[in-house]
């Protein structure tokens, strides 16, 4: 009786969320490798040509921002900068303004551009309308089905909740009644010689079991992105379990060698962490708010970081965050992106995440075929 009710729930939640899960899973496959694919397909955007490599110092960040903004339309402002300490890398200046109430993707971004600048010469390598960028469209399709943040996030978020329930009900339905050699073989292996209906059932049942842990991980980390309240609940819950005293990072004195807090702050963090992979700077216009510099210490790992906050009036560090001085909950949620895309363990876990996401995309298809076959069979009985 319990399994019958779970089967009913599994069926209808699958039919309701199947198309969304299919789209989100397929776009997730591309999102896993979007950084690598962009560098591979468009190296002219991201790398300085070898013959033009410079050994001199970079220009001041404030000057580079002025150069980048001069290439934009009137009223468009640089809101974020991605700095790469590597000598052969272009710096990326983002100008983004969104309409949170927009219904379609075409209206969601008022403007979204990236200006690629050689930080040594100040030459603008390219100005990109990122709103039309393939990987940006894929990302927005993954996050909100191109329906804007207000509506699309809601649809995707609740579909992910349904998917999490499908994973749990699925493992209960998969569980063999008796652990005999034949049932064990049928539950853990696919009979590729079977007829189409049986083969489809095996693809749904067996692949669903093997991808279960990844599927649940995708669902939970996706919900953390979709629902801030869910993220806060997990963070606070785990923080309450953490009784250890955290290391308090000392805040050193910062010499004021440049007039701009952006220039001085960047000079300081580059000198303190010359081995950083990337530095992200969200330009803070409100002078009462500290200016943040987020350093990613390992390639494709956002969870290994230092985050410096500089007072915009005095130029001194007001706060310094790293995984070492975060409570358990905050430390776990800081790993959310790495867990979601599989970069937590490098290339091997990214490949596993790609394959698991591909399997997740197949489950709504094979599940729908199972339902369709049963529907046709029931219809024939009634006629």
Automatic annotation (TrEMBL):
The chain crosses the membrane at residues 12-33, 151-175, 206-230, 351-372. It comes from the Bacteria. The keyword Transmembrane helix applies. InterPro entries: PepSY-ass_TM. It holds the Pfam family PepSY_TM. The keyword Phosphoprotein does not apply. PROSITE patterns: PROKAR_LIPOPROTEIN. Keywords: Membrane, Transmembrane, Transmembrane helix. This is Membrane protein. It comes from Flavobacterium flevense. The lineage of its organism: Bacteria, Pseudomonadati, Bacteroidota, Flavobacteriia, Flavobacteriales.
């Amino acid at each position: 009786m319990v399994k019958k009710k779970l089967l009913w729930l599994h069926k209808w939640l699958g039919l309701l969320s199947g198309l969304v899960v299919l789209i989100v899973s397929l776009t997730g496959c591309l999102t896993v490798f979007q950084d690598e694919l962009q560098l591979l397909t468009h190296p002219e955007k991201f790398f300085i040509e070898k013959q033009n490599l410079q050994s001199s110092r970079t220009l001041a960040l404030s000057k580079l921002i002025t150069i980048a903004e001069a290439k934009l339309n009137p009223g468009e402002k640089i809101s974020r900068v991605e700095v790469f300490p590597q000598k052969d890398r272009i710096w990326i200046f983002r100008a983004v303004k969104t309409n949170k109430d927009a219904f379609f993707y075409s209206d969601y971004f008022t403007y979204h551009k990236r200006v690629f600048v050689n930080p040594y010469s100040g030459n603008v390598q390219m100005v990109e309308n990122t709103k039309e960028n393939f990987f940006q469209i894929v990302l927005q399709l993954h996050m909100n089905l191109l329906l804007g943040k207000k509506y699309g996030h809601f649809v995707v978020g609740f579909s992910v909740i349904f998917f999490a329930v499908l994973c749990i009900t699925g493992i209960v339905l998969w569980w063999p009644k008796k652990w005999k050699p034949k049932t064990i073989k049928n539950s853990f292996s696919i009979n590729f010689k079977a007829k189409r209906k049986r083969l489809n059932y095996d693809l749904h049942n067996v692949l669903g079991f093997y991808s279960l842990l990844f599927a649940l991980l995708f669902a939970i980390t996706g919900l953390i992105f979709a629902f801030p309240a869910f993220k806060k609940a997990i963070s606070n819950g785990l923080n309450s379990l953490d009784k250890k005293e955290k290391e308090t990072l000392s805040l050193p004195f910062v010499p004021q060698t440049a007039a701009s807090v952006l220039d001085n702050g960047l000079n300081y963090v580059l000198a303190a962490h010359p081995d950083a992979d990337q530095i992200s700077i969200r330009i803070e216009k409100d002078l009462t708010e500290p200016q943040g510099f987020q350093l990613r210490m390992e390639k494709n790992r956002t969870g290994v970081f230092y985050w410096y906050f500089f007072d915009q009036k005095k130029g001194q560090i007001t706060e310094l965050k790293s995984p070492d001085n975060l409570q358990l909950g905050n430390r776990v949620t800081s790993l959310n992106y790495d867990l979601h895309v599989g970069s937590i363990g490098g290339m091997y876990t990214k490949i596993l995440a790609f394959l698991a996401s591909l399997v997740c995309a197949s489950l709504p298809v094979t599940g729908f075929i199972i339902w369709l076959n049963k529907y046709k069979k029931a219809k024939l009985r009634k006629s």
